[in-house]
Amino acid sequence: MALDTAYAADTPPVDLAAMQQRLDQLESLVGKLQSELDTERTARQRVEANTWVRPVTDGKSLKMQSPSGDFSFQMGGRIEADFAHYNQDRQKLGDGTDMRRARLYAQGTLYRDWDWKFEYEFADNSTSSTNSKGITDAYLRYKGFAPLLITAGNFKQPFGLEQMMSAHNLTFTERALSQTFVPGRGIGIGVQGSGAHWSLAGAAAGERPEGDVAAEGDEGWNLSARGTFAPFVDPGRVLHFGASAWRHEPQDSGNALRWRSKPESNVTGVFLVDTGQLTGVDDFLASAAEAAGVWGPLSLQAEYMRANLTRAKARDASFDGWYAQASWFLTGETRPYKVADGIFDRVTPKASVGLGGWGAWEVAARLSDVDLTDAGIVGGQQRDLTLALNWYLAPNLRLMLDYVRVLELDRPGNLADDDEPSSLTGRLHVDF
Amino acid sequence: MALDTAYAADTPPVDLAAMQQRLDQLESLVGKLQSELDTERTARQRVEANTWVRPVTDGKSLKMQSPSGDFSFQMGGRIEADFAHYNQDRQKLGDGTDMRRARLYAQGTLYRDWDWKFEYEFADNSTSSTNSKGITDAYLRYKGFAPLLITAGNFKQPFGLEQMMSAHNLTFTERALSQTFVPGRGIGIGVQGSGAHWSLAGAAAGERPEGDVAAEGDEGWNLSARGTFAPFVDPGRVLHFGASAWRHEPQDSGNALRWRSKPESNVTGVFLVDTGQLTGVDDFLASAAEAAGVWGPLSLQAEYMRANLTRAKARDASFDGWYAQASWFLTGETRPYKVADGIFDRVTPKASVGLGGWGAWEVAARLSDVDLTDAGIVGGQQRDLTLALNWYLAPNLRLMLDYVRVLELDRPGNLADDDEPSSLTGRLHVDF
Amino acid sequence: MALDTAYAADTPPVDLAAMQQRLDQLESLVGKLQSELDTERTARQRVEANTWVRPVTDGKSLKMQSPSGDFSFQMGGRIEADFAHYNQDRQKLGDGTDMRRARLYAQGTLYRDWDWKFEYEFADNSTSSTNSKGITDAYLRYKGFAPLLITAGNFKQPFGLEQMMSAHNLTFTERALSQTFVPGRGIGIGVQGSGAHWSLAGAAAGERPEGDVAAEGDEGWNLSARGTFAPFVDPGRVLHFGASAWRHEPQDSGNALRWRSKPESNVTGVFLVDTGQLTGVDDFLASAAEAAGVWGPLSLQAEYMRANLTRAKARDASFDGWYAQASWFLTGETRPYKVADGIFDRVTPKASVGLGGWGAWEVAARLSDVDLTDAGIVGGQQRDLTLALNWYLAPNLRLMLDYVRVLELDRPGNLADDDEPSSLTGRLHVDF
Questions:
Q1: Are C152 and C169 contacting, i.e. CB atoms less than 8 angstroms apart?
Q2: Which of A87, B113, C166, C323 is most buried, with most CB under 10 Å away?
Q3: What values do phi and psi take at A43, rounded to 5?
Q4: Does B123 touch chain A (CB under 8 A)?
Q5: Quick one: residue C99, left, alpha or beta (phi over 0 = left, psi -120 to 50 = alpha)?
Q6: Is the CB of A187 less than 8 angstroms away from the CB of B26?
Q7: Residue of A nearest to B103 (CA)
Q8: Structure pTM?
Q9: In Å, what is the CA distance from C348 to each residue of C60, C78, C333, C352?
């Protein structure tokens, strides 16, 4: 104890001074560290504020976004390359390759409430009436009153289910025969709204220019509307109904109204049914009804479309068409539904190729029909059966194979009358 | 005191040993913290060095930039969608819609001193002589001798005030009638310089191809220059004068020289005044004078342009045109001036829509005139009055409404002679 | 000592309590610092995970990349503006300017193993057979079996050395006369592989559409292959050999087969040698041999190409062409070689302009020849000498000047027969 005390009495003075020195140093060091850390935090926050690049949620694309989300800018596009072999009859169809779609888009958000999009189609399918080289989307959309959206510019006029869906998400390489009765895109104004189980959209737009439009005459006008109702919208359990109407008044100085369909394969330039240029049409009203359901990997879908023409100097005419399809995901995926637009959305494989899986595999069948013969107009009547095999390697990579068999083709007076050609169409699809 | 000493003698040994241990631990911890912080700083600096994305100052677009600023890359574009209704006379003008401009651009900086830009016009206004589908800007600019700039490639040749301004920043939907006398863009070389109160620009460029240019003949050539002087350049207080000259020698084997103007609304395809294809023109000299002033929300602006043609086998001819305009910002904004280019710049609303304000509102009026009749050429003479209402929702979002009244139209022998049509043109403008 | 003890006995109690307090504070502070640093590290890691932008290695462009590298997105393009003066004979060639190439591309990687590219040519050289406005690259490439690469879509079919090289990296403004015998791009499937000293590539593709292709006939088909071998591939010491073959079967209903060459300057629209449209060709086989060597700043390169036509209703025909060229870097650079593709790559100046240097300077000469006259087809025979001066201001900025002298032109019956024109062509090249 004395030793201890002696020790304590002897040695502490040295220890205590040194310890105090060490304490002083430590306090200074810790203060310096605190200041350095504050500096570092500020530097990192500055970096973060300048970092506007985040991966887009679907993992396929890239998007720049301001930290607040009020401003964003995104670029992307798609490539679709086709190959087709035709087993033709009298009317030759022409095997070959085709760049079906090659698009680039830019889109973004400005001042939180304004979305814009600009997309251009670079592929030149000059024989296709609804998909030729040119501006596709070019619009500004106000979402300040969301879920009410107001759109102005060039955009797709609401009509029909397949028509409103992006080709990204279609089950077959081409839309059905009946999809000739759709308004396509136009320059105008649109309004849309939606609830938990419904969507409603309407638009007024100028005439889609087809062929040579004389500049001197007034442009035609379109009014279109579509409503959908979905009592069930759960993943893997969807029931959907929809109805559309489209009134068109053609340009006053003559008009190039025409309905026609390719045999659900786009490599050929031939339209097996075709009304030719219809003149003297005062106006027409098209209507469409749709129903679809999803039960796990099974999907059913059908649409009926009809167009009634009014002609002052000739009999009124009426054309129609329909399709019904079924598809099944062998790998168990299910088609997602987007209630705000009343459409089906992109399928995501459970396990993408390259991420340890074999992607999603889907088989599908479709029966489709179009009748373009009425009131002295002999556009023809056609019925097709399509069988399809789709391989979704990843959400945005897809290989498609369609076998189309023309079951019936009535077009009296035309080389193709009574032909029953079939086709095998392959597609490579990538969007980014 | 003895107690204290006893206490000191009794307890310290334990405390001191523990304290020393704690000190050791603290020193070790602080050393570890310092090292971790250094690692963290290095990591953050690496992130910062790889972070090239910063918001562009005008808040409307995004730009990637290297930390040094020596390299940058930016993409953007614009959409302009028009609607027009015409109150026409004998000459039909044709109501309708039009995608007026739909452009995408990429631009950037390389190795600090080199700027490049590439812009493409996707809208196909095939009836417009100066704005049709195709490459607009495609140039490389050297700024190593700044403020002297050297530009090579395809770019706008210096001539006139309205012509040199981007359509982003014009007061009316269309440039004035007199703007047919401008050289447009060409492939060539340009030099420009500027001081605190002046700018000077000159260019030599190939002929702008119009219609079918036979490849065998030598291309025509252009020389153009523009100088501006602004005694006052303060915000809200600008006085501006300018003068331009343009000499053109057409292609040697025939030439498709033509001057014409639409009635200051572009949806119609009709040019109410039009010289038709002028052949046998040896060369011509165009000149222009401009004056403008800004006093707070008030802006005044006027230009006069004249073209003198020399023809060996016919009488020389001379055409001219002018416009004068006034505009007033109801919401108090003022037009900004860019002295380096001698032009007016983008208007920024005091409070944009969506950011708590109602944007900027502007009213404007313009009187414009063009005379394309001389020396046996009867292109016509036209005078228009335009009244405009502009709503700038944000710096890059604008709704425009123009009422144009043709006050006078002398074009003997043409259907449109003595017509006095009027038009109402609406535009949606967004640039990004 | 007593004093010390006394001191120790007197003062320590105070010091020790304070010191313990200081220690407590320090421990708490250091704990807080540790926690703050952990928070900071997490924040920085979150920033880093969201930071997908990194400078591309060549310092000329920008690229977005996910931290894992599995996803990337890049945009770029190029501008090439030409000026040419012709010293012509009977056949006029036409001085002037030309936008030779104006391209934008987007490319990227998806799910690690998939590369895609989409490029569009905006410059409209309608008179050029291989370089007109339209989609250039639009393909998807699987690299999961690298170095074996599988490509599908629209891409360059393997054939020849100059043809497979990007115009970025060519020594002269235009490819040689003999390069009319190349397949160009097509929609199809390609496979390529490479080793340390060799590369091998093959492709099957549809017919490149030239002019009006009737949709009813089956498209023609191409099979092409190219192999290269390089015994030496060291920087500054390269020896390269290659051979290619291309079999083409034209469309069944008539075909627009045509071979022709401009006089190695593209501003003119005139092809001095031209077979015209060849019909009734059953098929043809083209073959090519190549050799090249690099020894420091010296580069030698030569190719020979031949096409053999089979015609049922006329005599078989055979055309051929060749070129041999030498170039020398006055500033000591050497042409880099890319063994995986069997081509020469981009030249990087030792010191770029703006980075303290004067760039790279290169002189070059080329002799080229094409013979399109055989079996009653009088396309003509031409031989040119080209002298070139290239100034590489930076890896992606180049000024080029080519003097081409037609040494011999045999095209009996044509205006250009026996002409010996010369041309001076300047080019501004920037890619980004």
A1: no
A2: C323
A3: -65, -45
A4: yes
A5: beta
A6: no
A7: A118
A8: 0.90
A9: 11, 17, 8, 8
Instruction: Say whether both C35 and C116 belong to one domain.
Output: no
What residue type is C399 in one-letter code?
A: L
Tell me, yes or no, whether B287 lies in a domain.
yes
Q: What is the CATH number of the domain that holds A134?
A: 2.40.160.10
Q: Domain of residue B36: give its range.
A: 14-50
Q: Which residues of C7-39 are buried (b: 16+ CB within 10 A; e: fewer)?
A: ebbeebbebbeebeebbeebbebbeebbebbee
Same domain, A211 and A329: yes
State which amino acid sits at residue A41. Answer: R
Amino acid code (one letter) for A159: F
In a domain, B6, yes or no: no
Of B368, B74, C142, C359, the C-alpha closest to A64 is B74
Question: CB under 8 Å to A73, separation ≥6 — which residues?
Answer: A63, A64, A65, A106, A107, A108, B61, B62, B75, B432
Distance CA B85, CA C33 (A): 70
Q: What is the nearest CA distance from B133 to chain C, expressed in angstroms?
A: 10
Residue C120: which of A318, B38, A133, A249 has the closest Cα?
A: A133
Same domain for B40 and B57, yes or no, is: no
- Are B146 and B212 members of one domain? yes
The reply to whether B312 and B406 lie within a common domain is yes
Q: What percent of chain A has pLDDT over 90?
A: 65
Whether the CB of C79 is below 8 Å from some CB of chain B: the reply is yes
Give the tens place of pLDDT for each residue, A81-112.
Answer: 999 999 988 999 989 999 999 999 999 888 88
Does one domain contain both C186 and C153? yes
Nearest Cβ partner of B40 from C23, C41, C95?
C41
CB contact under 8 A, B216 and C270: yes
For B190, counting Cβ atoms within 10 Å of its Cβ (0-12 exposed, 13-18 middle, 19+ buried), the class is: buried
Tens of pLDDT along B284-321? 999 999 999 999 999 999 999 999 999 888 899 999 99
CB B249 within 8 A of CB B210: no
Whether A44 has its CB under 8 Å from any CB of chain B: the answer is: yes
For A331-348, write each residue's pLDDT tens digit: 999 999 999 999 999 999
ipTM of this complex prediction, to 2 decimal places: 0.87
Residues of chain C short of pLDDT 50, as ranges, are 1-12, 55-58, 129, 210-214
pLDDT reported for residue B61: 64
Helix (H) or strand (E) holding A195: none
Residue identified by tokens 């911890």 is: B29
How far apart are the C-alpha atoms of B31 and B21, rounded to whole Å?
A: 15
Is some CB atom of chain C closer than 8 A to the CB atom of B29?
A: yes
Weakest mean pLDDT among A33-37, A299-303, C222-226? A33-37
**A235 and A275 housed in the same domain:** yes
Which residue of A lies nearest to B55 if distances are taken between CA atoms?
A50
Neighbour count for residue B196 (Cβ, 10 Å): 8
How far is it, in rounded angstroms, from Cα A124 to Cα A126? 5
| Tens-place pLDDT, residues B95-109 | 999 999 999 999 988
